[in-house]
Amino acid sequence: MTDSKPSMSDLAKKLNVSKTTISFILNGKAKERRISEALVEKVLAEAANLGYRPNQFAQSLRTGRTNIIGLMVEDISNPFYASIARLIEEKVYQNGYRIVYCSTENDVTRGKDFLTMFSTLSVDGCIVAPTQGMEQEIREMHEKGKSVVLFDRYFGNDGTDAVMVDNQGGMYRAVEHLAARGAKDIGLIAIALDDPEKEDRIIGFKKAIADNGLATYVFPLPFKGGYEEYLQDISEIFSRNKLDAVVFGTNYLGIAGLEVINQMGLRIPDDMAMISFDDHDLFRIHRPGITVVAQPIEAIAQKAIDTLMSKLRNPALTKKTAEVITLPTSLIVRAST
Amino acid sequence: MTDSKPSMSDLAKKLNVSKTTISFILNGKAKERRISEALVEKVLAEAANLGYRPNQFAQSLRTGRTNIIGLMVEDISNPFYASIARLIEEKVYQNGYRIVYCSTENDVTRGKDFLTMFSTLSVDGCIVAPTQGMEQEIREMHEKGKSVVLFDRYFGNDGTDAVMVDNQGGMYRAVEHLAARGAKDIGLIAIALDDPEKEDRIIGFKKAIADNGLATYVFPLPFKGGYEEYLQDISEIFSRNKLDAVVFGTNYLGIAGLEVINQMGLRIPDDMAMISFDDHDLFRIHRPGITVVAQPIEAIAQKAIDTLMSKLRNPALTKKTAEVITLPTSLIVRAST
DNA sequence: ATGAAAGCGCTAACAC
DNA sequence: GTGTTAGCGCTTTCAT
């Protein structure tokens, strides 16, 4: 009936031992406190028997640590982020942490709200794919000693750790590949949240186009939630420009683009060669297969966690070193090029 | 420098007011406590000024409520669950809750671990796509007064709310559709965690096969993490049986199946007609398009949240009513059939 | 080798 | 109208 959780006091009372002792034993400090084997046994046994679980909130209130990690991505339903979330989940649980996630939808306000939430929740650290406009807030968290690891996007030299991917290089090789296959009019359709001149994927694209002496067709698109709108935008781009190849800056643009191409009855790669950033089941299985610039998802997750965990374990590090890791992408050539 | 968060005491000291008063004001109980307008203003202003944020842990410790909701799915990186997670996130935040998620991988032990974690974390409620074998634990949570809403899978009449989908009916109509198109040897490739006789999708399939006087080809597969293994299993099934149509019980089996079909050079729908449970970008965009039994993702998320929120708002309900909502699936016919 | 006691930040019954 | 006070369950210093 009164099945409510047993507290440390319950244990203490039942065993005629003080809370202190119980606490030490349960926290593995029995040795250094020289508590007798016998007592340790007894306490452990009774704790197990009663199904005792420490109250995380009391614990957090006392210690200031929460064992919660915040994960902030653009959209948790995007397979790229979902896969990362899955991997991070796996690795984080092994270290006794839990994850609270949220999707920013590239909205600064949402992003900041969530940062506040993380702060309110007192997460021990967080892994964030930031939107732009959050620079200030991220820096503040960092300065307050919270461990933050950025990925997917970051802001120059602000002292925050980041796990990035070689976006410029990846894009450069994609264009190179297309050019080598004889493409002349290569378009780039990519999200530009901010200034297109600052987007690495766009920069890499332009550089490759220039190096290959080709004409530049860049179509920066603002971020919008709706898939339908992208279909619309892309089909307009296709009808107004006679391209023989196209590169998409993200998986969802690639997907939308592929749908448009198919709808318009364009043949890949004869009428239109195609490459998308990010691999996806769709790109692998589609006939013809779609060439992609794949991001090393596993490595991104691993590095992000490793970085965060090492800061968490050694808080002194947090304020000091800031490392920006850049992981290579890989061009997976399929029949679309 | 000492930028650590201001507490209620700080506020109280600064304004020469007691914590009590602050607490009441901040919790919107100023009216009923008949606190003067002026004071309310002053407190609110100073709170905003100092950037005061209540300490969630102290709050939780005191009230027993945490504003955290646990979300447990089979695999957060599966688009079906990821989409649900996204929608649930959206709806939940509007109500001031946060989400902690975890992926069971259909592993009972993991599932139970996470349930314990939810319990330790004192989540206010949870939305769970259970694995089998968790019946007992779910029932216990429920009996302890925790709000639990199941989806995707549930255990008969155990008094827990559940949001389900008409799996039998969806599968039935898929087979019916195939039969109407002249398919004779229709195979079903589906995960059977437990007894295949208890899996609704398999039941629906068999019923439809019987009603249409066809031969029964059911290939229950155990759940395994690895995609490669499914490829293997499926291609064996295809080489050992001469089917003219196949139905896949879940999106990842459908994806693997499609990959196998393409690899084997089978033509859809001439050599092999195909239907998969769950819609997916891949099925929509693939040429030919793949007919699917789509689940109403949005509705599932909405119902789950609605149910949970109403229980949370009115705890008295929790122990009483248990509702099993069954949502319809829809057959989206494409070129694969 | 063990325990008493203070206090983390907050809420709410009960005074005044 | 506003303040006092007693905890929520835990950790940890200091005493014994």
CATH architecture identity of the largest domain in chain A: 3-Layer(aba) Sandwich
The CATH topology of the largest domain in chain A is what?
Answer: Rossmann fold
User: Which two chains form the greatest contact, residue counts included?
Assistant: A-B, 48 and 48 residues
Structural class of chain A: alpha/beta
Secondary-structure element string of chain A: HHHHEHEHEHEEHEHEHEHEHEHHEE
Q: How many alpha or pi helices of chain A?
A: 14
**Which CATH class of the largest domain in chain A applies here?**
Alpha Beta
The multimeric state of the shown protein is homodimer
Helix content of chain A: 40-55%
The overall pLDDT of chain A, averaged over residues, is 92
What characteristic shape of chain A results from the CA principal axes?
Answer: elongated
Superfamily at the CATH H level of the largest domain in chain A? Response regulator
Q: Roughly how many Å apart are the termini of chain A?
A: 68 Å
Largest β sheet strand count, sense and barrel closure of chain A:
6 strands, parallel
Q: Going across the major beta sheet of chain A, what is the strand order?
A: 2-1-3-4-5-11
- What count of structural domains of chain A? 3
Keywords (chains A, B): DNA-binding, Transcription, Transcription regulation
GO molecular function, one term (chains A, B): transcription cis-regulatory region binding
Protein name (chains A, B): LacI family transcriptional regulator
